[in-house]
């Protein structure tokens, strides 16, 4: 039971942090409110969101109380948008800001002046949680990701509790709504726990929230239906809100401990009912309640900056003066002769040991705790010299074998997981189930396959939930993979963008070291979505990500299984990256030995000597495994027709926003001429949208020589080869394009050009007639074999 001293301490703590949050929004001087406010004390531009700050401070204080009481590791995630003044206020009071920024934010009045002057100022501090702030693992500008990231952070961290504050506006988003289902996936045996706290302050920018208008009974029913144990805290109840919250936090902690204790003693805990606190407080609580007849506190009017004309309007200034005075901040802090601040002893009683402060939590600095993976032996996994060039194999099956062996080698470290939106089998990664299972905490039937309480494959049909969990897992120092259908990766495009922003903002922050890469695997590719149809044909994610920082985004498009293995190994060795590996799951020709694949991976681009002639008349390039197969088939065709024509084949296996191949390659643009020649026509067959490649070669002086082929947004239910036909990427189209380039350059005459083009067009007509009559591609296409 909470004693009166704790309640007193909590109330003082929240008063202090509410004052500091308010000061950051409004004040550029007189930040300790030592005299009545003047217009000149007010910032010229007022930004920030006051309404959510009191709730953030209230929860932070209660989390600190549990840390002090139990000496347990906590991490605090703030989901509500733009509440950073409150986060920063707590980081200052606990000393984390002064620890990491001793020169600019000392534990003095000067430090408070810094955070006030720079909050939401040019080159200052953002309005939302950010990597520059200690203890943060989520770039908080976009709503909906907090709970999934929290779940990811506690995986394989059995002593960690992630307290996750969720705004009731944020709770209306799709990613957040799906995140409640993670309770089906996370075992209480070897993982930590998430304590969700939904802040129901009732309003968004200009209207009410869904939960804000729900009764206690409705809230209770909803969260019981989701599998949680709801605990309601409401400032309109007769019992003091501080007493309610401490009781709720204590009950939640005891429930978490009980669930984990039972699981760790060998009990099969089915459907663990984790606690969730539903905290109802007024929006803008403790602020100005009304002004000029308009209700502010407990209304959407308090969402952002209230009494916002303090720099000029006397009435607004007086309202702010009265508001700040209500916190009696001078009673809560003293200044020593040296200028250092000493907070009230009751407030200090809520300060955790330094190493357990939320801003100093070691697990929020993944680069400090990361351990490199022990890598499988590629020589044992890859297709060896006994595999003839062009013989068929399976890229995704080999990746699955790599992951299987990686799980085995890193079993004791428990630092590797797959986050798969229900596609582990479909994407041909099933070899992993020889070593681990899919995690599942609800009932497991006797006929269910590859499911257990502690499986390392997290599988649920929500891209949003699983990508968020991967985010939380990697930023806290572990390694993960997100394999998904290519067409539906676009669902998490914005989440991936926010992840990249987090990584980019972290770079250069002296207390953050590089974290493991976020590895996205795109399979079930558009070229083999003939049976699923047009809705499953979409390579947009690639193009979207290739707009981002070249030092952070790498897109790997290996041509075969050995190349896939090489790039998989590289992806897990990378730091501060988002890697995209694009690999087909169907049978495809194998082109490179492991040594050749390693050689190509150094530059991300290579002339395939075995398929090329010296002094070429035309250049053919392929990027993507199915695209490469069609390129190689077109080489066979055109050499049969024009045996004296010399052709160079260039394989591109790596893309960045700065161009083709590795960054080292792009720093020497003259090498483009070496690879693609100085003056010969180039036909480029690409897996995705042609405009992606057009952008990447735009600055190259020879770009007009390029004829770029790719997905033209044409498709339906058809045959695999017809997918390429419809988009102009088939072998017949490539022969037509190479013939045109040869004709332009005078290598062949008009008669030859017309004859070749007519021949290929007729083959396309014959193919269409054949598949309409037979329903499948002809044998010579379905089982095409490479010959040189």
Automatic annotation (TrEMBL):
Name the InterPro entries for this protein: THDP-binding (IPR029061), Transketo_C/PFOR_II (IPR009014), Xul5P/Fru6P_PKetolase (IPR005593), Xul5P/Fru6P_PKetolase_C (IPR018969), Xul5P/Fru6P_PKetolase_CS (IPR019790), Xul5P/Fru6P_PKetolase_N (IPR018970), Xul5P/Fru6P_PKetolase_ThDP_BS (IPR019789)
| Residues covered by the Xylulose 5-phosphate/Fructose 6-phosphate phosphoketolase N-terminal domain | 4-367
Q: Which cofactor does it need?
A: thiamine diphosphate
Q: Which PROSITE patterns does the UniProt record give?
A: PHOSPHOKETOLASE_1 (PS60002), PHOSPHOKETOLASE_2 (PS60003)
Enumerate the Gene Ontology biological process terms. carbohydrate metabolic process
Keywords on record: Lyase, Thiamine pyrophosphate
SUPFAM superfamilies noted in UniProt: Thiamin diphosphate-binding fold (THDP-binding)
Instruction: Please provide, alphabetically and separated by semicolons, the GO molecular function terms listed in this UniProt record.
Output: phosphoketolase activity
User: Tell me, what's a Pfam family for it?
Assistant: XFP_C
- Xylulose 5-phosphate/Fructose 6-phosphate phosphoketolase C-terminal domain span: 585-786
- Gene3D superfamilies (alphabetical): 3.40.50.920, 3.40.50.970
EC annotation?
4.1.2.9
Q: What class of enzyme is it?
A: lyase
Which protein family is named in the record? Belongs to the XFP family.
| This protein's name | Phosphoketolase
This chain's source organism reads Shewanella frigidimarina (strain NCIMB 400)
